[in-house]
Structures are given as structure tokens and as C-alpha cells.
Amino acid sequence: MLEFLRGRDVLVAGWGVSGRSLIEPLQDIGARPVVTDSGEKALTEAAELGLGTATSADLLKPDALQRFALVITSPGWRPDSPVLVSAVAEGIPVWGDVEFAWWVDQARIYGPVRKWLVVTGTNGKTTTTQMTHSILRAAGIPSVACGNIGLPILDALRRTPGPQILAVELSSFQLHWAPSVRPEAGVVLNVAEDHLDWHGGLDAYAAAKARALTGRVGVVGLDDAVAAALARKSKARRTVGFRIGVPADGELGVVDGKLLDRAFTKAAILAEVGDISPQGPAGVADALAAAALTRSIDVAPQFVKEGLQEHKVGPHRAAFVRELSGVEFIDDSKATNPHAARSSILAHPSVIWVAGGQLKGASVEDLIEECRDHLVAAVLFGQDAPAIAAALTRHAPDVPVVELNSGDDARMGDPFTEIEPEAVMARAVRVAAGFAHRGDTVLLAPAAASLDMFADYTHRGRSFVAAVQALDEKDIGRTE
Which residues contact 340 (CB under 8 A, 6 or more apart)? Predict the structure, then answer.
């Protein structure tokens, strides 16, 4: 399958985590990796490892790409990137790192072929992948959580002893570049506006997600209209659904506070809703998805229950930070789009919403219209704070809004000189606490990406947690 690469140059586009994971497997099959990246530091690092390097300018010269048997792109490279466009035009195959990992696995380079359980969706991917892995561990099945969750698939394949099953989180970017992947089972949790600037529209974004539904079993979230519609287009040999409600035949759902499987057996109780972490509808939906994936490979109900009981939510995913004077502070920095923020807000009756960042082309109109009765106040920061504020004015005019931009502080008029991200977050938390009273929740659910101000969503979450821990009881209910 990969013999055509032996003795040939392969262009690795992007020197990130996924790019680095490609090097040893390429060398193991006899290929010669050549690295390209927009960063000079990245190229220097690759060269210091003895690898060939090339700049985009070099690669766009006439016939420069003809030396390559294959281009393997990192998921962040858009399809309209000049180097990738030129490669396609010259008839050179372009794969993603996940596509390459699939063929490495199929070729048995690192042992027997594994079963892939693929998780995708706009929100809940990481939690569902972790739940799936927890269930597999409870069943005693050698497995690993990998992919977009942090561990590259190729690194997982090279582990000794190797896993039998991969719980694979895949983003829409990764799926776009991985047309050959045929998982043992794959789930599309939900599909909402996100990364539209990369894909060019919701239809293309949904089509990328649907590539998870191409294997033996496809699973879709029936409470999400777009994901449910993908069931009709599923290429899986069998497609089942899950819902937070009473399941029909061929579905998983919830009855009397219990997760019930009516897809892979006549009726089997899998777990108690109260045992699920995180609590709330989003957590239950993720648990049902993980249960569907593992039940599709005959994991017994008792191990589904045990695995879900053992799973605990990771940091920055609707994580409780502290309670102060009857006010709860929740860190959901992972809510990087409006769909995720919606679930987070609706889980609490009265919310002081801390939000902002890069919307990536997504709209917050529907989010605010649906959640306005839950909002006590909103404190906004970052690049698209004005867009969120404008939507609040249109759909929730009675909700107080404070924008913390580089030119405004909490009084919305005096010069604001604290431009460090941690200082902005500390100010946002103090202002939010000032709106709060006993029974309220101060919720970081940004509805936006973090890279305009922070290194990533974890940096943003840590900043929020530090700011919350610095509060005193006198800060509660003390508007300035």
C-alpha cells in the first residue's frame, strides 16, 4: 500500500505535533521526509534533525513539487493554501496525517490492524473520546485515546505493547484530509456553525463531519437537526441514533433517569444519569455516544456503566472552580463556539456570562435569543466582543453588558491600560463577581476561540481559575 513511497521524497506540510509524528513512520517505510512551514524557527529545528526543508517560495517555483511522491498536510492547512493547490494541480496526492496513519495501520507497519472508534462533532468530542476510552479500560481492552485529543494516531500505533482499539477524536479539518478512513464505528455528535472560514460554509463543514459515518456502524445525535439529517446520507453499513429522551428501536436514550440501549439489544440499562460527569444534557449526550460506540463492538453493559462512573470531566470543560458567598464559578473555556456556550449557559438558571474571543465566522444571534432568560449580565472581551454585545442589545436589551476592550474598562469610558491577557481576565472576573448574588453562576463560556489573546483555551481557562481564586467575599455583588 505504501510501497510507492520507498526511496521517494515526501513533503510534510506543517511542523507541529502532527508533522513531527510523521517523521519516524516515513523513515521506517523508506521515504525521505522534507519539511515545509511558514515559521523560520520550525524549519531550523527540522534541519537540525537532519531533515530536508523547503520554503513555500521554493516549492512554488516551476516543477519544484515534481520531486515529491506525496504531500502530507497538517490539519490546519486550508485546502486553498498555495502549495497544496499547486500539488493537486500537478497530480501529486495530498493526504492528511490521519489519512497517512490509516494506511500505515492497514499496512500493518506496527502490528495487527486496529479497530478505530471515531468521534467527531462541533462540541463534546474530547469528553466523548475520554468516556469511550474509560469504558474500554473498564472492559480490560487494550486501547488508547488519540487524534485531536492530543496524542497523534501514529504515536499511538507505535506504542509497545500496542492497543487493540483506538478511540480517535477527529476534527473537521482532519476528516477533510482523510477520505479513506473507514472506522469500525464512528459518531457525529452534533453540527453547528464553527470553522466556517476554513470550510467555506456549513454544508462543507457538515460533509467533512459525515466522513465519520463510513464504516461498519455510524452513530448520530438525534437531538441535533443537522447531525440527525446526516443519518439519511450515512454510508455506514448500519446507522443508529441517540437522544436525551425515550429511545425508539434502533436508538439509545434516557428513561426514568437511566441510559437505555435499544440499538444493540432489545433493552439494556447502561448507567444512571446521576453517575455522568459532567452533569447536564451535554454530558448525558456524550455518554450515550460513547456507549453506542462501545456497544457496537459488544462491550457488555456492566463495563459501560463502570467506565462512565469512573470518568471525570477534564479541566476547562464545565469544571467547578469554587463557591464564594453562594455564587458558583464555572470554567468552561473549552466552549469555543456558540453551540457549546449554549449548552453551558442553559445548564444554569441565572448566569453572569464571561465571553469573547474569535467567533470564526459563527453567529451568536440564536444563542442569545435562546439563552437570554438565563442571563443576569454579560462581561465581554477580545476581538469579537463588539459583535456579541450588539447581538445582546438586539435580543436581550435588559441584560447589562460590559465590554473590556483595549480602550475600555469596566466603566465603559475610562482608559483601560491593562492589556495583558491575565490582567484582562482578572478584570472580567471582578466585574462579573460584582453582578453576582447568592444562587447565581459566574460562567466562563466564551463562545469563541482564544488565540486573539491567549495561547489556547487552556491558557484562557487557567487565567480564569487564577482570577477566581484571587477573589474575596467583598467582591461579590459589588458593582463599580
Answer: 122, 123, 124, 332, 334, 445, 447
Q: Nearest-5° angle of CA 161, CA 166, CA 172?
A: 145
Say how far apart CA 394 and CA 369 lie, in whole Å: 9
* CA separation for the pair 261, 255 (Å, rounded): 10
In the DSSP assignment, the letter for residue 357 is S
Query: 111 exposed, middle or buried (CB, 10 Å; 0-12, 13-18, 19+)?
Result: middle
Q: In this predicted model, what pLDDT tens digit does every residue of 116-151 receive, in sequence order?
A: 999 999 888 989 999 999 999 999 999 999 999 889
Q: Which three cell numbers stand for residue 191?
A: 453540527
User: Which amino acid appears at position 71 of this protein?
Assistant: V
Q: What residues does 327 pair with on adjacent strands?
A: 324
266's CB contacts (< 8 A; 6+ apart) are: none
Q: How far apart are the first and last CA of the chain?
A: 67
pLDDT per position as a tens digit, 198-242: 556 678 889 999 999 999 999 999 999 999 999 999 999 999 999
